[in-house]
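Consider the following assembly input.
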Amino acid sequence: MIELNPEQRNAVAAPGPVCLTASAGSGKTAVLVERYLSSLSKGARPADVLAVTFTRKAGAQLRSRIYASLKNDKPLMAEEVLLSPWIGTLHSFCLQVIAQWGSLIGAEQADILTPLDRAAIKQEVSTLWMSRLDASLTERLFTWWTPNDLIALADEALSEPHGFRAALAASNPEDPKVALLFEALTPLLRLWEEALRKSRLRGFDDLEDLAVKLLRDFPAVRTHYQHQFKAVLVDEFQDTSPAQWTILECLLEPELTKLFVVGDPKQSIYRFRHADVRFFLNLASHIEGSGGSSLNLSTCYRSKSDVVSFLNAAARTLFEGTPLADNPMVAGQPELSGRPVRVIHYPEDQEAETVAAAVAEHLRQGTAAHEMALLFRNGDRMGVFADALGKQGVPIACEPNVSLFSLYEVQDLAAYLRALNDATDDFTLSAFLRTPYAGLSYAHLASLKEEPGANWFSKLKSKGWMGWFTAQVEAKQASTQVALSELFTHTRTWPAGGGGLLALFEGLAKAPTLQEAVEKLGAWEKETVLVPTSFANHQAQGVRLLTVHAAKGLEFEEVFLVDPLRRPPTRQPWFLFNPQGLGFKFRQGGELSATEHYTAQWEAQREEERKEANRILYVALTRAKSRVSLLLPDVGSKIPKGSWADSLSALVKSFET
Amino acid sequence: MSAPCWIFEEAWGRDLFRTLYPHIQHVPLLTWNEWLETVEEPESLEYQQARSSFIASLAEAPKAETGDWLITLEELREAPLRYAEDAEFCFSHLPETQKNQFLKTVLLLYLNSELAVGDRAARSLRVLERLRVGELELSEDTLFIKARKPSHLFFEIARGKTTETWDLPVEAPQAQTRGALRLEFERTVDGLDRLALKARRLRDRGATLRLHYDGPAGGLLYLQSRLASHAIGDITVLPFHPFPMESGTTTLCYFEDQPESLNALALDASERRALRKAGFILAEAQPAKERLCERITALFSARSGRRLLFAKPDLEVGGSARRSVRYVPPLALAPAAAPSLLSDAITGNRAVGTLTATALELYAQCPAKYFFEQQLRLRPRQEASRLFALWFGMLTHRALEQAYQQTQWHDLDTAALEAAFEKTLEAEEKIREPAWLAVALRTRFRQIARVLPAMETHLRTQLGTLTPSRFEQDFEVPFEKWKLRGRMDRVDRTQDGHSLVIDYKTGTVDFSPEHVRRGLHFQAWVYLLAAEALFEKPLGALFFDLKQGQTKRGMLQEVLIGKDAKKAFTRGHALSPENWQAVLNEGANQARLILKKMETGDWTPSPAPASCEYCDLGTHCRVRTGWIGGSYASKERL
């Protein structure tokens, strides 16, 4: 058993409900494990304890730590922990609920909608919707929006269909523009739902909705779980959304006694998934008011003591004037790092090179590569840094997400499937001929053009080139799977690829015929579907390149906060919605205008985003054990407002004084 | 390492498995090579000791001066070779005989490759074994291979020879072998290159193989790969199986009087197919293709049979190792394609046909784009969202032509223009579907109908009376030894008989005479060239920006429009006589440059992030897909 400090022991033993505010690196996972074990020692079986984590990975980690502490003394119990379905994300809980009770509301078995599915269905549905718009409706829509606007509108509505539908329903139907949107977009949403039902898919928001429906409307279901669970543990509670809280509430009625939540409101960074930090703060005071305990874990074991004092200073500046500014951390490690903060100034356009040189220097001085991390607010510039580090010979561990169709291997395979599907289309056929699978040169294409023949396919045949391919086209096999295996058989090459290729195959497995495969490929090319890939200098033990969101829960000797000039995105969407209604933009006499609701929401959102940006920065800083390296542009550079550079230079100044 | 783990033969299988079953995280999933690396530390002390003792043994027992192999395959197999430096070091202790050089070359091909460390030396040995080289000698232009057993021969002949004969002494393994040993190596490449290599066994025992090559010079050196081929004298040994697919390539090496000896050969599926086609009877073996098919089927269907894979593994709670693989582009290029991968351009003079301004502009933007779109006429099938812009441009031009031909310009009001557009819409049957298309076109045209009369009036306050006199005028003008063609939307005549070429633009007009000078814009220049040839007194060319409702851009002769009118045009668009001539000359220079480059067949893509992003030809030109001129380029380098 791990040695706990008094704060932690208190948290493990406190009678429920408990709301535990745990600072970064204060050992909250250890407390969760002990709390779980203490429920077991009070007579509960693993099947009676629900432990909700934020990610599957965190769930697996929790499970293995509980398993490890049980396996010697109680091997049977440990085995049960391994098999318990109740350790994992809230979505996996929803899946279990639907699997068991779904038939009550006619919810059939369905797979989870992957980003690839989403892109394909979205494309299919919006094309169908556009083609079905009748002339009179179009005429009226075109008063306010252009055809391209409409495509963008449909796209946004489908990126969050549930929220959109609710907001549309809550808006004032007297407003002619709202009525018009209602008339135009309701069929779109219906098409979307039909398409999902037809392909037996379900998004995460559907999962939550169905689970809520089952738990709220069916007392039998609700009481089943209320009786079953003797304890409910929730990790990372600061990132819980209202819908998720509704589910938890159903499990806990009539009182919250079984509840044990852990979180840190300073680290709430999932606003884009509707996480609301106010929720945590309200719950804390509610629990305190209703006889439960609201406790703190404030001893930080992760960072050295001078790093902790820097982090406290940072929190004071970043959260000035809010309740988050109170409650500083206490250093749990007496050691000093000597130089907790380092500012690296870089000349403009030399940022990546400067960072790479600094990292290489540290490697030479003996810091292990995997103990260093480059943290990004947004991952899209990772490639530049990966390149610069590669030039310095630094191994990196980074599997960034890139757009599926930016990958060579995907483009080449797509060209093949498209050509096979319709060899009479000269354009697609010639694209395939240029892939390394066929490898025809410009000269070959030119000589093919001269060959007599109705189309390029017949030219190809009369030349006698690519015999296996022409034979395959003529055999008219329409199976994606056969097509791919033919390709790999004849070229004897399986293109080894990172995650991108696997995502592609995963997606294609759901498109058994070539026609379906080609349609999906078209959708994936248009939509930016992100898939994981890896860089050339990738190694498991390399320097980590991560976004702050991906770094949640990790710790490193030294972190570099890079890309500091990046500002939060300022693109204004067409729709802004909340449960109170829908705000939107439209054109009036060629000029863009917006509804009042839109303008108000935009302002509110900007304010919330600004606050969240500070929390993201805080999470980034607290990943460091011994040192934080801050990248700042050379003096005299223009620093955009709201960027890290902006906040950091203020931080550094306040820390120095 | 004794911890339980699952081992996959290849990385992709493992990665696919991981994607399909993400929740299996308790067991490390390793590829064979990763597993090997975990059990065998590459830079361990043991390894270092083994290496130095091996080298010491070489030094102790030099097999010098015989001119024979100084290291046998068996010895090599024992040698702790992992990296190129090991081989270099190893062979630096051996006399530089040709055989040793050959061995070293093959080894280095692999050790320098991107194969997994554990795999490198093993793969090279496998190739050497496939070659069954018992003895090998090299001279300037001859390869002698003493083959213990007839088998595949992998080699390649250098360029520069048109006919060539080699004699290869072959030691027959079975003394009783009679008849001729025939070896055929034939490769027909699309009429561009042709190679026939024939070998015949000359004598019965200790026979000599005569290889004869008859073909054009330079047609043979190809099959570029990431593993650069290494040449020994005139012979290039390929680091991989050079006959990847049905392509008119057959390699046969068998005893004619013993057809069943074929079965002893390690034949691949395509070779088996080729043999069967040629009438040989082969013993049944499960072809590689079927095996691969099965494997893929299993992986694809594994989704549905998910539960089967839940057989409880011996769980060890712990982390998982993950190593990702890079995209290694297919090495096995179709031989049919290979020859000219060395140079991706057509060289030699070509005649350039009659060109349009668009063609010149396309070439200026990207020669590859011009090559595919104009030369090969390859264009993607249009989709609805793009159709809109296409239809709108076409119908607007048509409607305006009709309206101006039927009505005097000053009688043309919004209603008349809309009526003309309505008529064109009705005449076009293809735009009935989808329903919104016609509505959208009409709505968009309404804007033009609103601003056009005002534009016309405004223009006349600047330039005086203008009478539309010609519509949709096709032209073809000579330019030095070439010809240029195009179509003028409208030609207006001024009071004093000057002609003004008018071009309708439904999109944004962002050109300036500076673009002509820099060779980026040719339309105005071609108009002026044509106007000078067709009309007596050209005034210039003017672009109607129908989107913004402006007539501020074009190329006009300042002297003909007067100082006051000049102000109505964007700065630089009304030109002084010197500038007028300078721009025309510059335009001609730029056009000449492009036409000359076209004649040499230079289609090298000129990638630019902004234009490549919206280009449909990425797979064709291989800039975005990173394969250009026969090798893969990293995207970051662009």
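The first helix of chain A runs from residue 6 to 13. Ask yourself how this observation constrains the way the partners meet.
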